[in-house]
């Protein structure tokens, strides 16, 4: 007889809901996203969830699996299953649209508030600024920017952050990591505005450095380190120093 | 309060933490040394009365402790109780300065004793 997984899936919307149990055939190689897709295609087509690339690039499929936020397309069931059980919930700290799909708008609105858009430097004569000519990949600034640039915006860090849960205005790890990436980009011309945007109780100074974001980032990025970098840069900036 | 002001509170809390780190060590070592030969009010007053260095030390210590504590409590209250905004900020400032004033008053009293 084939083994089955006992899967509890949270069903509901912003008003509330409850767990619904499903039994899904266990496979030797199976991701959590495979399990959710099996439920939606074979057992209950009304299940709402979100995915796109299935290969860890798009950042759409994050959910809370057995209590931890994870990218489900790259999470093998055998690594997270407990006594043959999976419990799937939508990402924490975000409004639920339905079932496993959350509204990511607050998450991305905060990227905008942290000025997460690249703002090219201008040069006086309208020519291409000198910083654009060559950016050596081995330069310290570029390596600092590259450290955080692979963020896929999955929201795992945001859902894992206690400060976000306690302080609704807090920009969160991903937006601050993006800001730090651009602060280190020598071609960017909005450094001052960006540092202003990430200062204070809703910005980097709210972070307690508990590092759940760094621990759980599926891309191995260190948002906690990025936030510490913002604090450091803002601190020395008070004395006119660039560190 | 502006984001800049909030940043300054953050900086103040870190700087006062550094002061407290040194001050607490000096304070504890002094206690250990002082109690060796038995402790009496006369001995304490003998050490600190009329001594500007001890007065300054405890004035700075009390000010750092008052501000550090109030800023920390402000953060906890904002996160756990949702106490945010200008009125709470002013209240925490008052609590911090009042706490510091009690300590400075005690130090001044011993100086004058």
TrEMBL record, chain A:
What this protein catalyses is: a menaquinone + succinate = a menaquinol + fumarate
Q: Where is the 4Fe-4S ferredoxin-type domain?
A: 141-171
Q: What is its EC number?
A: 1.3.5.1
A Pfam family per the record: Fer2_3
Q: Which top-rank group of organisms is this from?
A: Bacteria
What is written in the cofactor note of this entry?
Answer: Binds 1 [2Fe-2S] cluster.
**Pathway it acts in?**
Carbohydrate metabolism; tricarboxylic acid cycle; fumarate from succinate (bacterial route): step 1/1
Q: Does the keyword Lyase apply?
A: no
Zinc-finger as UniProt keyword = no
Q: Which UniProt keywords apply?
A: 2Fe-2S, 3Fe-4S, 4Fe-4S, Iron, Iron-sulfur, Metal-binding, Oxidoreductase
* One GO process term, biological-process aspect: tricarboxylic acid cycle
> Which PANTHER family did the record assign?
SUCCINATE DEHYDROGENASE [UBIQUINONE] IRON-SULFUR SUBUNIT, MITOCHONDRIAL, SUCCINATE DEHYDROGENASE IRON-SULFUR PROTEIN
Q: How does it assemble?
A: Part of an enzyme complex containing four subunits: a flavoprotein, an iron-sulfur, cytochrome b-556, and a hydrophobic anchor protein.
Can you say what this protein is called? Fumarate reductase iron-sulfur subunit
Automatic annotation (TrEMBL), chain B:
Primary place of residence?
Answer: membrane
Q: Which domain of life is it from?
A: Bacteria
- A molecular-function term among this protein's GO annotations: metal ion binding
Pfam families (UniProt xref): Sdh_cyt
GO cellular component, as recorded: membrane
InterPro entries, per the entry? SQR/QFR_C/D, SuccDH_FuR_B_TM-su
Which cofactors, by name? Answer: heme
* Keyword entries, A-Z: Heme, Iron, Membrane, Metal-binding, Transmembrane, Transmembrane helix
Location of this chain's protein in the cell: Membrane
Q: Which residue windows are transmembrane per the record? A: 12-35, 55-78, 90-112
Q: What does it do?
A: Membrane-anchoring subunit of succinate dehydrogenase (SDH).
Protein name, please? Succinate dehydrogenase
Species per Swiss-Prot/TrEMBL record: Falsiroseomonas bella
- Source species taxonomy: Bacteria, Pseudomonadati, Pseudomonadota, Alphaproteobacteria, Acetobacterales
């Amino acid at each position: 007889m084939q083994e089955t997984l006992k899967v509890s899936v949270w069903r509901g919307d912003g008003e509330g809901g409850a767990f619904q149990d499903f039994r899904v055939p266990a496979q030797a190689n199976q991701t959590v996203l495979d399990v959710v897709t099996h439920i939606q295609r074979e057992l209950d087509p009304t299940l709402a969830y979100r995915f796109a690339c299935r290969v860890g690039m798009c950042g759409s499929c994050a959910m809370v699996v057995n209590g931890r936020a994870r990218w489900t397309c790259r999470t093998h069931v055998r690594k997270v299953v407990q006594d043959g059980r999976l419990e799937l919930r939508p990402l924490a700290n975000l409004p639920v649209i339905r079932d496993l799909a959350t509204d990511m708008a607050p998450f991305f609105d905060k990227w905008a508030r942290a000025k997460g858009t690249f703002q090219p430097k201008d040069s006086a004569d309208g020519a291409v600024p000198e910083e654009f000519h060559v950016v050596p990949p081995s330069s310290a600034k570029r390596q600092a920017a590259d450290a955080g640039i692979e963020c896929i915006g999955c929201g795992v860090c945001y859902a894992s952050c206690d400060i976000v849960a306690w302080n609704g205005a807090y920009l969160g790890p991903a937006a601050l990591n993006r800001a730090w990436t651009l602060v280190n980009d020598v071609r960017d011309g909005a450094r001052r505005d960006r540092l202003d945007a990430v200062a204070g109780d809703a910005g980097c100074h709210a972070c307690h450095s508990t590092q759940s974001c760094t621990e759980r980032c599926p891309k191995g990025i260190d948002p906690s380190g990025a936030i510490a970098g913002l604090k450091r840069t803002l601190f020395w900036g008070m004395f006119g120093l660039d560190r | 309060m502006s984001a800049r002001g909030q940043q300054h509170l953050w900086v103040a809390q870190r700087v006062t933490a550094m002061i407290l780190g040194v001050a607490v060590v000096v304070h504890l070592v002094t206690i250990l040394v002082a109690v060796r030969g038995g402790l009496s009010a006369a001995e304490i007053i003998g050490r600190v009365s009329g001594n500007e260095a001890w007065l300054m030390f405890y004035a700075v210590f009390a000010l750092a402790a008052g501000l550090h504590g109030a800023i920390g409590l402000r953060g906890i209250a904002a996160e756990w109780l949702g106490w945010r905004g200008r009125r709470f900020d002013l209240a925490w400032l008052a609590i911090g300065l009042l706490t510091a004033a009690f300590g400075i008053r005690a130090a001044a009293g011993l100086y004058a004793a």
